[in-house]
Amino acid sequence: MRRLLIVLLVSGLTCAVAPAAARAAPDIDVYCNGSLICEAPGLWFTSPVLVDFVVSGHTSTDCRDLWVRQDTGGTPVGCSASGNGTTTATVVIRLDQTPPVVTGVIPARPPDHDGWYSHPIAFAGQGDDRMSGLAGCDAPSYSGPDAVSATVVATCRDVAGNAASRAFPLRYDATPPDPSSAAVRTGDRLARLSWPAGVTATVARTPGTDGASSSVLYQGAGTGFTDREVRNQRQYRYVVTLTDAAGNAASREFVVTPRRQLLAPGKRAVVNAPPVLRWTPVRGARYYNVQLFRGKRKVLSAWPRKAELKLEQRWRYRGRRYRLKEGKYQWYVWPGVGPRAANRYGKRIGARTFVLDRPAPPAA
Q: Do 273 and 331 fall within a single domain?
């Protein structure tokens, strides 16, 4: 700085006077939401911005605090101040308060079966952002639980840091049907297989039909199948495969021998009440003859139409009264062929015994 030296001679005295220093131009500091950082590469605000101008050393200024509330990709905000010169300050505010839009998910593979997924599946999220731009979307996956209306949630983020999520539906079932629910019952030259509703069943048999080593006898969504193309006393192997809507499958094997047989009570059963006698229905039988013996004496002969007979506590047979008392009984069953008056019977279905025991006293 140049200085001017003025020398005065006053009463023989000499003094030097230095001029005052020139004043600097005004200073302007700009704060955004309390921070001196208002703009930088990649800087976006996600909430309204209060722009605060702090001015010093001025005589006049148009600097006033203001708000930026609308989303903007770059809005210049500035002011000027005058004093010993003029200072201008300008910042560019970028504001994005709007989350991106999650537009969809792309599965890593098509559904496993008929619109269902039966194994864990990954997805790629898709999105869009009209202001700061899309930074990316996550890659969600789904592995359960089983549900006809399951959802997978995708999340996307924009460059400003806003995030949005959206759920998308899917059908998922990774659990095969329970094959233990399938069952088989045999009778006279037949085998009845059954399973629960809601699945598709395939029934295969070994040996097969028409001389084949194995044959598929049934495929469908019913709840059972009766195989009438079997012989008594011959062993058959059935494999029942249950498939659900998602394509999951499970199988169960049965090895059976169709035959005529007595079913209940079991062999050498002990009962404490009049039992129900049951046996396998015989094809072509119009009725049955049931004979009951106590020791060597026949105490009952009955002709039920169904393959069962409920014994009573008391009854009449050939003019005499009988009652079911403690002891051992034998029972036999024959199928009746044609009209009952014809007195024609087929081969005896079976013979069994049961013991009627005194009922246990009630607990004290």
A: yes
